[in-house]
Amino acid sequence: MSRDPAVWRRQVPDRLKQIALRACGSSPDCIVGVGLMEILDAPLMAVLISRKPRALSPDTPWLRAVFDCFRSLPAQGFVGTLGQAVHEAPLWTAANSGCPVAVVLPDFVSAQAPAGRSTQAFERASARLDGLLPKHCTPPHGLLLPLWPAGDRPPAQDRLHRRDTIVAGLASAILAVDVSGRGGMKDVLAAARCAGTVVDVIDTGSAPDAKPHVCQWPRDTAPLETSPAWTAQQWLCHYTRSHPEPWPGQAPSDYYASLHTMDPLSAHSAIDALRNMLRSGIIRSSARMVRGDTPVVSFTGLPPGDVGKLHAYAPHLARWNFEPFAFCIGRRKAALLGAEKTLYVPASSPPPPSPAESWKYQWIGRVDTSAEHEWRIPGDVDLSALDASDACLLVPSPSLADALRPDSRFPVLPLGPG
After folding, report:
1. 3 falls in which pLDDT band (50, 70, 90)?
2. Domain final position from 202, 231, 258
3. Less CB within 10 Å around the terminal CB: N or C of the chain?
4. Residue 320 pLDDT > 50
5. Region 378-391: what's the mean pLDDT?
6. pLDDT higher than threshold 50 for residue 1
7. Letter string b/e over residues 81-119, b meaning 16 or more CB atoms within 10 A of that residue's CB
8. 401 to 85, 263, 328: CA distances (angstroms)
């Protein structure tokens, strides 16, 4: 990101101080920032949205409302923040329309904290913003970090409320989209109105935050597991799931652009994930759940019926552990691609003999996933290395199998009878 790396410092605007004291009982000592300092002198608009389910589709009502509102609003500055889609979709939309943007960092930092804390916060935000801002029209922008009084240590759950308060306090106009009648955001809007901020309200009827919808696992997988196409060889199965964020390797700006233009695969559902693998020719690896730096593609050696017994919502991951969509590779072929059975060891175990071997291990601590019988292939899986007989795809029903077959050179098998 091309910007002056010098950190500047500004006093807290009176309106922000008034709103912060009313909404959360405390006000920052000052605001430090990098980038466009003059943005704080311009009228800024904010969009505030209550928490929503993580799953997104191009026609999600609150998302379309955000995309549409910038068509009719005058080009002015925008203030927002980083985090979930309810924060980043408005920020991307404002930047895509050419608005100068002020970005409030989500970090909570005390005015007495070492300077390194602020530097690290700016570096994290800068890296995220580099991927989020549209490359074709990167607008003027600044990163803002409020510094709170020494000794002010709110509970973790209150820090996001303070971030929303800062965003509202820097805005001269707020668009409130589907804001819940309960919770802290209602108090933030009330404080903003008292300070003279213009607040417009849009209610799209979008559902509040909840577990994501998922297809039910077929109850009877025996027809599949006894079919010649399945029993011809042993399989390792890579189960997909809905992915309400950028695909691995996809920039956040491209993800929000795909939602904006209503790309057919932008909902990132589990079947979209299979189509994306087929379209790209790659199963992308990830190091997110693996110790060490080696990214892997995870598989299970369990038959589909046993996988269905493990089907559950994982609160610590805010997603379902499996959905009934899979890309399967024959075990012999998988072994040639480097597949190895994951070694489950207690968290207290010593590290592996070589750091390069860490990807083969899964430590068992508070969460025990050993029942998943995981296998891993290091690195991406290139589908061009597979013959049609080396792999197959699993989907819940015959109708979905029929829908996916035109996109696949591999057999597509239904998990259940319908």
Report:
1. very low
2. 202
3. C
4. yes
5. 97
6. no
7. bbebbbbbbbbbbbbbbebbbbbbbbbbbebeeeeebbe
8. 31, 21, 14
Closest CA to 49 of 32, 69, 33, 31: 69
Task: Give the end of a domain, one of 143, 174, 202.
Answer: 202
Task: Calculate the alpha carbon distances from 89 to 81, 180, 363 in Å.
Answer: 10, 19, 36
Q: Is 172 left (phi over 0), alpha (psi -120 to 50) or beta?
A: alpha
Say how many domains are in the chain.
2
Q: 5 CB contacts (<8 Å, ≥6 apart)?
A: 34
Q: Residue 4 pLDDT more than 80? A: no
> Which domain covers residue 38, as residue numbers?
8-202
Cα separation, 361 vs 290, whole angstroms: 8
Confidence of residue 53 (pLDDT cuts 50, 70, 90): confident
Beta-carbon-side half-sphere exposure of residue 335 (alpha carbons within 13 Å)? 5
Torsion-angle region of 35 (φ positive above 0: left; ψ -120 to 50: alpha; else: beta): left
Q: Is the per-residue pLDDT at 92 higher than 80? A: yes
Instruction: Write the DSSP symbol of residue 318.
Output: T
